[in-house]
Amino acid sequence: MQKIFKSYTFNILLILVFTVSALYLTIRDFVDEILLALQSIQWGWFIVVILMVLFYHALIGIILTQLTRMSNPKYKYRQGIINALIASFFHGITPSASGGQFAQVYVFTKQKVPLSDAASVLWLDFIIYQSTMVVTVFILMFFRFQYFFNSHSPLFIFVFFGFLINASIIFGLWSLARLPRFHNWVSTRGIEIGIKMRLIKDKEKSIAFMEEQIDRFQIEKAKIPSHKPLITKVVCLNIIRLMFYYFLPFVAMKSLGITLLEGYSWLDVMALSAFVAMINAFIPIPGASGGTEATFILMFTTIMGYINASATMIIWRLSNFYLVMIIGGITFVLYKFVNRNK
Predict the structure, then answer these.
(1) Could you list the residue range(s) of the whole structural domain that residue 274 is in?
(2) Domain total of the chain
């Protein structure tokens, strides 16, 4: 049974089951109206949606290339983009996107990047992306969270907790690395609390794992001051990457000729898109399937109505997740075939 749960085929079926179930429960009473809305698609805008999705993943590849060239100057942009597409596939088919980095390490080794360098790139990419994302979402929450929370759904409390989870990861690492007292407390009292709450089973193994992650964090953090121009460039690329991702629902909406309800703007779309991403932190299902679709509809109903939100979600999810999964899966199969003897 355990092998079945680890099977990628099973995970893909799980994604489809949860997606279909979520769609059935959320749009079953408005199928005709939603199909009518989808028929009004403007293909020019839809092509823009697809190009934005592809550019988003190309940006990830460019970021990986820039970071990899710190230790492997001959690393090509084509290699970085292939790595990013394969990672997107494994992020999508594994619970909590846990398989993406393992796939990236595999691709890096096939691309003749030493394992130690691959681990360094992924750690530095995580630090920069997580820090940039937390700051970006904080700004969007500062402008729009209170309004949506007060005026609409208590669902937005999960947005706040999702943000805290993401922020606590990066701030926790920074604090453990820079504050000796906090480090000592976590490695003693904090671990004991985790054991009492049955969150931690093996004390020694947990401490060793924590120390290993802190050491790796320290090593990668120490590289930042000596590579300021490159790090600044990567931070800017991550900001653009996030802006593209959060703006995508607005373009998907445009592709259907949908207008926002009075009083709302593109900034609200970006904020709600960020909020959906925050709630995904609570959904351990591969691809956050089912929960993502339902959350998107519930949130975006506030600014464009239920029918329009449902139609926009379908365009957004098909282009931003399923299309990328198909492209990433095909890229992985072809890459394995080409490199089967290497």
Answers:
(1) 2-171+210-338
(2) 1
CA-CA distance, 75 to 101, in Å (whole number)?
A: 18
Statement: the pTM of the whole predicted model exceeds 0.85: no
Tell me, yes or no, whether 205 lies in a domain. Answer: no
Angle at 330 between CA 329 and CA 331, to 5 degrees: 90
Question: What do you get for the CA distance between the two ends of the chain, in Å?
Answer: 33
Evaluate whether residue 11 is within a structural domain: yes
What is the reported pLDDT for 189?
A: 60
Question: Which contiguous run of DSSP H or E holds residue 85?
Answer: helix 77-93
Is residue 253 in some structural domain? yes
Please report which helix (H) or strand (E) contains residue 284, including its range.
none
Q: Are 67 and 252 in contact (CB under 8 A)?
A: no
Q: Buried b vs exposed e over 68-82: b needs ≥16 C-beta within 10 Å?
A: bbbebeebeeebbbb
Low-confidence ranges of the chain (pLDDT < 50): 1-5
What is the percentage of the chain residues whose pLDDT exceeds 90?
25
| Tens of pLDDT, residues 197-223 | 555 666 666 666 666 666 666 666 677
Q: How far apart are CA 124 and CA 116, in angstroms?
A: 12
Is 199 among the domain residues?
Answer: no
Phi, then psi, of 256 in degrees rounded to 5: -105, 5
